Structures are given as C-alpha cells and as structure tokens.
C-alpha cells in the first residue's frame, strides 16, 4: 500500500480525528489510552520514548510498545525524542509496524530535554531537523509527524512550520506556548500563533494549549481552523473531557483500575493518575494523600480509592441545600474538573504570601543558603560539599552518554561494555568481564575431553590399576 500523506493520511488512517490525547511521559500508557478512548478520544499518542534507548534495550521496547497486541488502541502515534537522523530512523523502523505514524518530539521544555539536547531545545537547529524529517520520510512505511512549541514571533513560528512541512512532515501539532512557558510560568497558550501556522501550511494541524473542557475544544477549532485539538493536563484531570461530561471522580478511577488489572503498568503510573483525578478531594481529605503515596500494591491503591469514595459520599450526605463549592471551584471537589495551575503571584498568595525558594535565597544571600534536604545530607556527612565547581567530572560512554569506566578497554559504561564484550568474545579487566578467557578455557577443556586416551602397556600399571588388582586377587 502506498504511504498516505497530509490530509489523506488524517482523514483515512486517523479517521479524521479531532479529539486527541497528548503524549505524556509515564502518563499516556496503554491503560490510560484505553480509558480515554472509551470517553471520546479518537487518537492517542504513546508516552515520549527515547530513540537511543529504544534501539539498544529490548526490555524497553517490550514494556513500552511490544507488550501486547491491542486492536482497540488504534489509531496510535508513537513519539520519539532524538537528535540524530540515523538514530531516529533506526528507532522508528523498529516501531513502525506497531503504529500508524511516528512523531518527533520538538516540544518538551523540561530541563532533562535541555541536558539531553532534544525536544524544544532543537528548535533553532533547522538544518538538523530538516535532515531528520527528510530521512524518516524517505525510509519509513508510515508518515512522520511533529509536535512543536512556538517562538515568541509569529513570523518565525510560521517559517519553522513551513520548513518542517517541506522536509516531509505530514501532520503538525502546535503547542501555543514557548519553551520558556512551563510550570508556574505556563501562562496562556497563543491561539494566534496556531491560527497563523494553520493558514500557512497545507498539512493537517492539531492545536494544543488552553483546553479544559469540550467547549474549549469547539471554540479552538472555530477560532484557529485546526483539524483537531490535543489535550494533556485537561485529560489527566477529566478523561471524559471529550464527551463533555464531568462525572464523579470515583466512577473514572474505578474504571481505570479495572483496565489496569487487564493491562498492567507500573504502580507509579497508577498512583500518579489517581493523584491527578483526586486532586481537589485530596486538598480536603489530606490524610489520605499520605496513604496513597505509601501503598505498594494495586489492591492497596484500590483500597485508598474506595476510602476516598466513602469520604466523598459522606460529604454529599452532609451537603446543605443551595450550598456552593468552596475554593472557587466550578464543581464540588468529588466531580472531575480542570485544574488551573496558579501563576507565581497567585501561588504566593495561596501560600499566605510565602515567597518562592529562589526568591528567598536571593534575599538572604544568594546560593549560600542550602535547602532543607541538602542540610540533612550535610548533617549525615559534614564533609559533603554542594559546590558545582568541585563536583567530579566524569568522562562519558561513547555509546549512551552515561559515565564510562575509568579502566574500560572500550571506553564504555558497564552496560554497553558487557554487551560489546559478549558480542566480540572479548575481555575487559576494568569491568571484571572475562568472556574471552572463559571461552578459551571452555574450548581447552572440550579439546581435552575429545582427545583419545593412550593405552598403557601390560604390567606397567599404576598402583590400584587393573593388572595389580587382578594379581593380588589370584595370590
């Protein structure tokens, strides 16, 4: 089948999807995607996968994509972060048979993306991005898509989008925030940037940002002209967002736990989802927050969930007629609803005028003030220093970037060294790996076993040999 492109790909392969669940690290796993699809999502992305790790680690591939065939989980787009054309394409080739498209992450603004040199921190490297998209477009049997953040300037954002389209991108998701807009500084996403991009390109565009309800979805499509709308945080707090419903939290929490029993995932993912779903209730019943954080099994999580449900039902029974939700919430705390992230000023007002840690440090003498956590570490070890200039500098492994072994003969970390030494039947005394030595000993032992033993002349037997035993018996 020829590879579909642009609007044909969106309408036929993706079924003209308008309601999209965003790629979310450790949050858009299979169980959550299935829950979201049951409640109006028409297209889902996997969590962001690290291309280099996906290539070298079979367990990583199995846990994140190869775990099981699930026909209900389609259409599906697999997202990778990468900064090398060959690595990106090699990972995509391993994934293309399990999805409908491959997405390149150009939108992650977190510090880990800055250190790893991927995500939104590649947005100035247009030549590299052109090569990555072009090679993927040529080599893959499925379309390549991109998710980007905007530049402050609309004109530059439009040129950026056009460059990606020209390189071979078949669908573009535009998050209407810059890479500096994150955490408490998120602010409002610019739909003007998204609208300008939509008008300037001839491929489908999805909008991302400011989506908290189905009404926001419809307004965004109308205002920007995009083909679909992607939700991340809104979906985490209300998976029924695309249905236009705000059900009781326990209804969706119990449904999610049932799906997890059929399609298991790490307990940390489950706990994180329940913290989001129960966010407003945990502000009221704070003692259950600690219980949810401490449980070690899925049944333990389910028990805390049940206790939260009972507490909410007690709150409902005590509710007075005409009573309104507290804390400025649109609904009572047991109803799924959006969480509006407070800005820096709002956050300090909510905390009784408390200043941010960084502001306090600057006020009290800059970086000399240690955090409570660092002070505890220093109490345990008085000689410990937190001066970055005194931190040891580690040479990096030639393959994965982890610290390499100082005495490794291959200049690799232990994990990469073990794989190479095994593959080449070599020794690395620095890491205590003796594959070659063991192989030589094994071959020598096999050779000794297969060599025929020389017959000994009669009468020259050693003590305890057959001739002597027979002679003594006759005597």
UniProtKB/TrEMBL annotation:
Known cofactor(s): FMN
Localisation: Cytoplasm; Nucleus
Keywords: Cytoplasm, Flavoprotein, FMN, NAD, NADP, Nucleus, Oxidoreductase, tRNA processing
One Pfam family it belongs to: Dus
Origin: domain of life: Eukaryota
Keyword Nucleus applies: yes
GO cellular component: cytoplasm; nucleus
Entries under Gene3D superfamilies matching the protein: Aldolase class I
DUS-like FMN-binding domain sequence ranges: 21-298
Catalytic reaction(s) noted: 5,6-dihydrouridine(17) in tRNA + NADP(+) = uridine(17) in tRNA + NADPH + H(+); 5,6-dihydrouridine(16) in tRNA + NADP(+) = uridine(16) in tRNA + NADPH + H(+); 5,6-dihydrouridine(16) in tRNA + NAD(+) = uridine(16) in tRNA + NADH + H(+); 5,6-dihydrouridine(17) in tRNA + NAD(+) = uridine(17) in tRNA + NADH + H(+)
GO molecular function annotation: flavin adenine dinucleotide binding; tRNA dihydrouridine synthase activity
Region of interest: Disordered: 343-388, 444-475
Catalytic activity, EC: 1.3.1.88
Record's compositionally biased regions (Basic residues): 373-383
Protein purpose: Catalyzes the synthesis of dihydrouridine, a modified base found in the D-loop of most tRNAs. Specifically modifies U16 and U17 in cytoplasmic tRNAs. Affects the level of some mature tRNA and thereby the total cellular translation.
Protein family: Belongs to the Dus family. Dus1 subfamily.
The protein, known as: tRNA-dihydrouridine(16/17) synthase [NAD(P)(+)]-like
Organism annotation: Callorhinus ursinus (Northern fur seal)
Gene: DUS1L
